[in-house]
Write a structure and sequence with these properties.
By secondary structure, the protein is mainly alpha-helical. It contains four helices and no strands. The radius of gyration is 16 Å and the shape is elongated.
Length: about 90
Amino acid sequence: MIEECMRNTFDVLTNRQTIEEILDSEPKTMFYGNPFEVQNEDINEMIEFFENTEEFEKCSELLELLKAKESAEFDMFIDNLASDNGITIY
């Protein structure tokens, strides 16, 4: 059960399948965490799961996703900080 949840969420996060496609094929399926609002902790737990199953390619993709997510969060923080202080960033 946990394996199916991890794989479904991995497929959604890496754009292999949409949530709708997964639900169409298996209406009672589950996901790990909320794929619409994935948290860094969820990604780290998924990485740990795939390390234990020795699927290191998946770990690599999730690490890239985690780094991209952190970069995007930092960019949004800087943009909000600049907006709040009346500075325009080009």
